[in-house]
Specification:
By secondary structure, the chain is mainly alpha-helical. It is 56% helix and 0% strand. It is globular.
Length: 120
């Protein structure tokens, strides 16, 4: 008995390079869209060629890792238009939204904790 029977849907997902549907896909997509929306809100009220390009890059980012790397580009887009303080505020608002959604290799390093030893 085969556990993974190939069918048209699985083959189509493999061909397109997409993740196979899973029970947690909806939750994962909700987090992705929440981050995307927050990043797009950071661009509200400004216009120009660079803003339009950044808007498109954010809208078409395929996964949470792509949005993670676009944070710096978002910052660089906002600095000349709104100033460094406002751009940093947008970045400070967006960065915590990634918590729990990134692979281990992309997570920010935590400060090492002191070992807990008992003195006898």
């Amino acid at each position: 008995m085969r556990w993974n029977k190939p069918n048209l849907r699985n083959n189509l997902h493999d061909l397109l390079g997409r993740d196979k549907p899973s029970s947690t896909a909806w939750v994962r997509d909700q987090g992705l869209e929440e981050v995307r929306k927050a990043m797009l809100q950071g661009l509200m009220g400004v216009s120009g060629c660079e803003v339009a390009r950044m808007n498109m890059r954010l809208r078409y980012a395929g996964d949470i890792e792509a949005l993670w790397y676009l944070r710096i580009d978002l910052f660089d887009t906002l600095v000349p238009l709104r100033g460094e303080a406002v751009a940093q505020k947008v970045l400070d608002h967006v960065t915590p939204l990634f918590q729990g959604q990134l692979p281990l290799s992309l997570r920010t390093p935590q400060a090492p904790q002191e070992p807990r030893f008992r003195n006898f």
